[in-house]
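Most newcomers find our protein records easier to grasp once they have seen one. A learned vocabulary of local backbone shapes supplies the integers on the structure line. Here is such a record, shown just as it appears in the course material:
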Amino acid sequence: MAIPILMYHQVDQPGPRGSPLRGLVVSPAMFAQQMATLRVLGFRGLSLTQLEPYLDGRERGRVVGITFDDGYLNNLEHALPVLARNGFTATCYVVANAIGMSNVWDAPLGVTQVPLMNHAQIESWIDAGQEIGSHGLDHVDLSTLDSAEQRLQINRSRQELESRFPRAGAVQHFCYPFGRFTAETVALVAQAGYRTATTTDRGRIQLSGDALTARARLQLPRVRISRTSSFFHIALKCLTPYGDR
């Protein structure tokens, strides 16, 4: 059994041809088509918390995890209505020190600065039945930091989010900024008490009848969805080994 976790960033109109990271911006119309495709294929779109019983082997069914990195305002504006229409839930990984700001970590690449959700907007996301996870304090490459700095980014981000958004409950899910981590990073995420952590490694989660090990749950691969992922591509990526490459 294979379970895909979809990786999204922005849901908005892509910038002009040649714009850095343009492929990670999925138009609202394309996102709506992608979610409708999942529903037609019989998938239930789930947040990481709702996906956990399937990762544990306690439940079985055609499910797909849905994740959004960084916490863009356009996720609330364009993705949330589509998720609600399809009865899907998702996990949005929030950068704790960047709430209400912009994607400053992308500036060196020349990426257009885009608003991130502010406090009230994240509360709206939560109130709509969606979930938040941690994407660190400052969206920094954890693999370049020493142990104390990594621990600060991993632990403090969780504490900040739980303090600012008590209605969300415990923040149980982490996403490695830039997808970079070391064995020490994984150990620190485990020590912080997170139940899952997602990477940018490509692939579906492979289950052979047993629950995932604790370590595997902290290195979950994802299926990258781009602005050109059509009905055909979604089906291939979720239903076949194509999504594992």
The CA atoms of residues 124 and 164 lie 13 Å apart. Helices lie at 28-40, 48-55, 73-86, 119-127, 147-164, 183-191, 214-217, 231-239.
